[in-house]
């Protein structure tokens, strides 16, 4: 059976404005930091060099992913024409969005690196477990639509953690321990047509296999 590899190049969006960094912004459409857009030009140039051509581009509905894709294009990549993929948008924190991060700092921690536990569901929002399910469905849908292609997606820290968790079957608690920096690159491969052992389950054969190529890669500047 012929093996087919679909490769996802996941980029976390540009750093947001300083006033937004102090809050839990989630799915709020906060602006990017203009000064950082200028100082991070070498990072955009690096991404423009290493990202594959003839790829299918995705952004989320939030403007910070659009601005990031545009900056990579200007840095030398060329035209991207991204499609919008709502399934890769950041986790919704519902009524907690806009609250100061300092409020969570004083609360009892459910996780050592994130103020909200993986199974905690904010009022009117979604838990990380629900985010992982949503992102996993988006990856499956895009794999089926663009089988064997390179897919470049400008997304969000939480969604990229969720993508890794989906690929590796990590728990929500484990996934929240992953560092995903702004403008970093995470590459996931989905393989179909692999030759499993005789005792492999039908589900394993049908759904294929994931491989992690790199996590949180960025240029040294």
User: What is the gyration radius calculated from CA atoms?
Assistant: 18 Å
Instruction: Tell me the name of the CATH class.
Output: Alpha Beta
Portion of residues within helices? 25-40%
Largest sheet: 6 strands, mixed
Termini separation: 44 Å
* Element-by-element helix/strand order: EHHHEHEHHEHHEHE
Overall pLDDT: 90
| Beta-strand content | 15-25%
**Strand arrangement, major sheet:** 3-2-4-1-5-6
Predict the CATH topology.
Answer: Rossmann fold
The count of helical stretches stands at 9
The count of strands amounts to: 6
CATH architectural label = 3-Layer(aba) Sandwich
Low-confidence regions: none
Shape: globular
- The CATH homologous superfamily is termed Phosphoglycerate mutase-like
Integer count of domains: 1
Which structural class do the helices and strands define?
alpha/beta
Concise summary:
By secondary structure, the protein is an alpha/beta fold. The protein contains nine helices and six strands.
Notable traits:
221 residues; 9 helices; Rossmann fold; 6-stranded mixed β-sheet; single chain; alpha/beta
Q: Could you characterize what this model shows?
A:
This protein is of the alpha/beta class and 221 residues long. It has a single domain (4-217), classed as 3-Layer(aba) Sandwich (Rossmann fold), CATH 3.40.50. It is 36% helix and 17% strand. The protein is built from nine helices and six strands. The chain has helices spanning 18-21, 34-39, 41-50, 63-77, 101-105, 128-145, 157-168, 172-175, 202-207; strands at 4-12, 56-59, 83-84, 150-155, 185-192, 209-217. The chain has a six-stranded mixed sheet. Helix 3 (41-50) crosses helix 4 (63-77) and helix 6 (128-145) crosses helix 7. The radius of gyration is 18 Å and the shape is globular. The model has no long low-confidence stretch (mean pLDDT 90).
